[in-house]
Structure prediction request, 270 residues.
Amino acid sequence: MADTKNDLAVIPKGMEEMMTLDRPAGKDEGALGNEGIGRGDIQMPRIGIAQKTSPEIDPTSANRYIEGLQFTDLFHSTTRKNLGKGPLHFIILRRDDPRWVQFKPLTEGGGIIDKDVRRGDPRTAFGPNGEKPVATEFHDYIVLMLTGFDPAKPLESIAAFSLKSSGIAAAKELNFLITLRGPKLICKGIYSVTTGSKTDKKTSGVYAIYKFANAGWLKPDSPIEKLAIEMFEAWKDRAVEIDHDDAPDPDDFNPAEFEAGQGARHDPGM
Prediction:
């Protein structure tokens, strides 16, 4: 992500009493002047995972290739930074309800046919013989990355996990970890993510998976907890468009994997 604060790196001489590089605490009431910014106007970067056929590991994919990225590595979709296999630590600012997107088959060039398939649409259902749904299901989480966090540039640490296909099982596991914490604001819990691989029993194909774990709590009344609560309030109702591929995962899952879930469960107090 480009640094949008370069012009504010130094307060101009004579303006010290007028300017600060610190973001004001709290929130303002009434019309804020940003009400016209809609879903399509905010592009949310995501923390992706490299599959065997991901363009990010293909040197011939000039616009997508990330040098040094390997199968099962995590990456930032906007900065194109290789984040390795973790662990990365983060807090969740928002968890969205599942959504579905209908893609054009890769054999037909890929691309999106319908990015707003509604719950209950026949395209979201498995076929009578276990055929995967026509529309791809997504579970989205807007997060604040604590690994590499810069207090002076907190917005640069906001990203999304947009889990689909083989990642659905990981989404269910993350949802389970969230519920283990009980009646606490979702933004107060710290989670970690690492990666691994799994073999599809039906196709024998190997695909990369996310592995989530509970990793403790933000310190009560600390500056980072106060910032997290403020961001939770700011993002909970904001419409965003999460950066995504224009094709379904080539390394897709079978119906058994969809229901299985994976990974060890961890005590939220750890």
